[in-house]
Amino acid sequence: MRLLIGWIVFFASTLAYAGLPVQHWQLTNGAQVYFVENHNLPMLDVSIDFPAGSAYDPSTQGGLANLTRRLLSQGAGGLSDVQIADGFADVGAQLGGRFDTDRAGVTLRTLSNAEDQSAALALLTKMLSQPTFAPSIVEREKARVIASLKEAEGEPDVIAERAFQKAVFGTHPYAHRESGEIDTVTTFTGPQLLDFYRRHYSAQGAVVALIGDVSKTQADAIAQQLTAGLPPASLAASTVIPPVPPLTEAVLKTIAFPAKQSQILMGQPGVARGDPDYFALYVGNYVLGGGGFDSRLMNQVRQKRGLTYGVYSYFMPMKEAGPFQIGLKTRTDVTEQALQVVRQTLADFMAQGVTEAELTQAKNNIIGGFPLRIDSNQKILEYLAMIGFYHLPTNYLELFPQRVAAVTSEQIKQAFERTIYPDKMVTVVVGAAESIK
């Protein structure tokens, strides 16, 4: 019965997606466009992403990419930051954005009637093609970033994540801190930000995603409007990110911190987006630590021993291999015990693989929850942007439940053996620093 329910949900999720076919084309300026036509609501959701994440920061200018994206909405085309904000508010439009290691992006939600949509898109076009990076605004935003960085210096989870990132990625660009460092952010000037913008925000590297109450002809015109004034391709920097080198040995980093709890992070480089093993790893990780109370880590560390309130594991695929991470917080006096239980649970998982009962439960839960991941235009927009940026097939959403359903226990075991090396893990402990090994 459970398997039957799983297949029913699988077909329902496929049918839910089938009414939203993804259309894709390339503009003459090189920009990629991904579009889903949906007239159920009088709304349009748009995003535009660029290969301009923190991995593209020069080695001595950490935080330059982040500050550049942050300032796009803080003055453009003769308009101040206040005028831009008021302009979007006046037509009921919502401006947003995203920034990570690989990409920087801007999102817009607007009503689809001609007047409001035109006004909102005109503002977005100015932001993207005519940012001013005014000196006073640059200094203000630098101060805000620096204040945030100083505050984070006393947060154990931030300290742990930073140490983990450095230990896993070493000198690779993925080790760059997204927000940068205080001593680098302090030095940035408007001309430096403008130079980064010109080299990383060209139409050639842009991915435009749209979903909503417009036709394909209108979507094409919008994409051309948003990208027409972007910096020329002749100024564009390379978008190549080097492969992430594997770890050659285990690394243990302990950081003393005055707290009643220890923050533990374990992991290593995982997989890149589009890796053939991704779905086997995704389903297997649900069993290991991604399935909440269904997972082995939660069962062993919390339910059986009461050593934590929560423990997790995940893969974060990026353009190149992103991190695989296990994380938990535990009392300082049981830090060593919790760490050993996590290590043993991972070792047992690698040796035994998953049971058929665990596999069925994982598939049912992943496939059953899939419709909730595409139940709004904004959620679908996120997927469109990801599909475009990482060059995934346009029917990725349709394939997702099918690929999950096809995973076998043997595929999971082989995928983890190819990817995870328990004897070469990075382990970071912030809190109890003594007697940890």
Structural topology:
Layout: H1 2-18, E1 23-26, E2 32-37, E3 43-50, H2 64-71, E4 75-76, E5 79-80, H3 81-90, E6 94-99, E7 104-111, H4 114-129, H5 135-152, H6 156-169, H7 182-185, H8 190-200, E8 207-212, H9 216-228, E9 251-256, E10 261-269, H10 278-290, H11 296-303, E11 311-315, E12 323-331, H12 335-352, H13 356-373, H14 377-389, H15 396-406, H16 409-419, E13 426-431
Helix pairs in contact: 1-13, 1-15, 2-8, 4-9, 10-13, 10-16, 11-12
How is this structure best described in words?
- The protein is α+β, with helices and mostly antiparallel strands and 437 residues long.
- 46% of the residues lie in helices and 18% in strands.
- It has two domains: 16-235, Cytochrome Bc1 Complex, Chain A, domain 1 (2-Layer Sandwich); 251-431, Metalloenzyme, LuxS/M16 peptidase-like (Cytochrome Bc1 Complex, Chain A, domain 1, 2-Layer Sandwich).
- Helix 1 (2-18) packs antiparallel against helix 15 and helix 10 (278-290) crosses helix 16.
- The longest helix is centred in the first third of the chain and has 18 residues, at 135-152.
Helix percentage: 40-55%
Strand content: 15-25%
CATH class of the largest domain: Alpha Beta
CATH superfamily of the largest domain: Metalloenzyme, LuxS/M16 peptidase-like
* Number of separate domains: 2
Low-confidence stretches: 1-18
Spatial ordering of strands, largest sheet: 1-2-8-3-7-6
| Gross CATH architecture of the largest domain | 2-Layer Sandwich
Distance between the termini: 47 Å
Order of helices and strands: HEEEHEEHEEHHHHHEHEEHHEEHHHHHE
How many H/I helices?
Answer: 16
